[in-house]
What we know:
The first copy, chain A, is α/β, with parallel strands linked by helices. The first copy, chain A, is 43% helix and 17% strand.
Amino acid sequence: MNLKQLSEHLNLSQTTVSRALNGYPEVSESTRTRVLKAAQDLNYRPNLRAKGLATGRALAIGHVIPVSNQHEMVNPVFGDFIAGAGESYARAGYDMMLKLVPDRDETRAYEDIRARGTVDGIIVHGPVINDERIALLSRIGLPFVVHGRSTDVNLPYSWIDVNNRGAFERGTQFLIELGHKRIALLNGLEHMDFAFRRRKGYETALRNHGISIDTSLMRSEEMTEIYGYRAAKEMLARSQKPTAFVCSSIITAIGVRRAIHEAGLVLARDVSIITHDDALSYLENGDDVPIFTALRSSVRYAGSEAADMLLSLIALPQKGPKTRLLEADLIIGRSTGPAAT
Amino acid sequence: MNLKQLSEHLNLSQTTVSRALNGYPEVSESTRTRVLKAAQDLNYRPNLRAKGLATGRALAIGHVIPVSNQHEMVNPVFGDFIAGAGESYARAGYDMMLKLVPDRDETRAYEDIRARGTVDGIIVHGPVINDERIALLSRIGLPFVVHGRSTDVNLPYSWIDVNNRGAFERGTQFLIELGHKRIALLNGLEHMDFAFRRRKGYETALRNHGISIDTSLMRSEEMTEIYGYRAAKEMLARSQKPTAFVCSSIITAIGVRRAIHEAGLVLARDVSIITHDDALSYLENGDDVPIFTALRSSVRYAGSEAADMLLSLIALPQKGPKTRLLEADLIIGRSTGPAAT
DNA sequence: AGGGTTTTCCAAAGCGCTTTTATTTTTGCC
DNA sequence: GGCAAAAATAAAAGCGCTTTGGAAAACCCT
Lengths: 341, 341
């Protein structure tokens, strides 16, 4: 069932039917209801490809996931972000396109996306420091919203981000106020902008309290469980072991917890953990009492907001760029306590 | 830069240029190279919408994720599956569309997808027992591959699945052979087909060894950490506590481990855990020595294979339906030991 | 050289929709 | 009742590509 058939069935022109369907005013109410009813009854749905070709809009948003060759990891945060964004798209009648792009031919990939015309805008994931994609996208004129920010990029662009620096400063300070002095940081990969900012926050808190920065207590890796485990195991074997860990992800924190147990130590009493918590649906941080003291910020919410932002940007480009800084909540759980003396 | 402009630039007709670009034989080698070179130089890329409209193919695959209203969870497995599939699509020049569909209006959604014409086929996620989507999709004639199977559906259809039943039978038997008798099952939601099959496998093993099935040791919930923790905590508080747990997910297993620690018990010595392991990139099950004894099956590989299967099905529909049963590997880790006497 | 093939290229139609422009019908007013 | 204006509908062009049905050019025989 296509427009032509529908219009023949109704004894109307395609024009009139199209207008009736799309809510244009130059069609009488009586025919409009008649058309709507027929469309409903005959189960008519416009072909989006044709519609897109005619209107120049694709009614789809692209999500570009950089896939680095060294790090095959799929960011676990991704599923929840997409879920949030998906809700927004569904409401707006937009489709979501996913594109995994090996980071070596990113430039090509974005130009490709632009030329293929399958999306009206894109969400940029995983920005790094001085991310060149931002300049590229501005240049080729494809609307976009960055999930995160990019330090050292001075162009104006739209983004939504958590206050990573503030959160980690606050979390570290929380530990310091509990009397901790040797505080380890198990960060994500620090060429990633979020991780870079988290380190800055951590360092700021230490500096503010006159604690010297000890690089032997700092790690930067992909945020897996095994990473947390190994790093903590190694650090806890030292004579001058850290009394607290700041983790970039609950998954890493779980690894740290494993190492703590294995070393015969007790969480919160002997060693504290504070972690960032993306509020992932399958990794709920406890129930009433959180397992981990955490800096919580729902990545699902961020996804939904990012999508809404992009959609409004596409509708009214002149209103951009837009930015939005979300604050993480510090929630006290059972993984922190006063520093062991 | 579109076809028309390119052809004018080359002083050729659109026909010839199109044919040269798409590898049709009725064009001389010399003009072909000339066209290819110009396309390259001028950075020409065909508009996919137009191409799709003309050919009737969308060059895109849809992934439909059912979003139940009660369970807001995003399956953590999803990211890795998508990553695997994405690789296959990238190779074939296909795009990937994601669609989150609330399960109440699924029928509508699939018809919609069909009519909108934005995809050439779909991957069905999260099949339940007697999944009605299979009949629906067969009826509307949209090529599809199910990730998993659906018990009680008798139509022929294409699927790729892990031998869940076999895996859980084997895992349970492994525990029995270690002397365990009170073996708990922390399963996923059992209206989901995979979970149903896992229970069958578990029950078969018990039955084969004359162990009676104790429903008080069986749970069926969404596979979160907190679920594993709560269930294990409750069961370990009994006088007749289980000596081993069979878990449907590493995440749940982590929750069980937490409960074991908290109860002052020692993993593998006092209580054993065996778990299914989807080989998620961010939840690696240890390194040389696996943390958990597990039934491992890479969901990423499944994603890639599912995508390839669907693509070949689209190319040659008469070759279908295809099916593929993957076997899970039993890997021995540090979470199992002989039953405490 | 001339007729038949084969090769190479092209004009035009068509994919299903929107939108511009044109035409017909209805309405409002004196 | 008649005319202009407004409302309703229609015809046709266009979005960027593929593909059908020819036509022109090149090639191959005898």
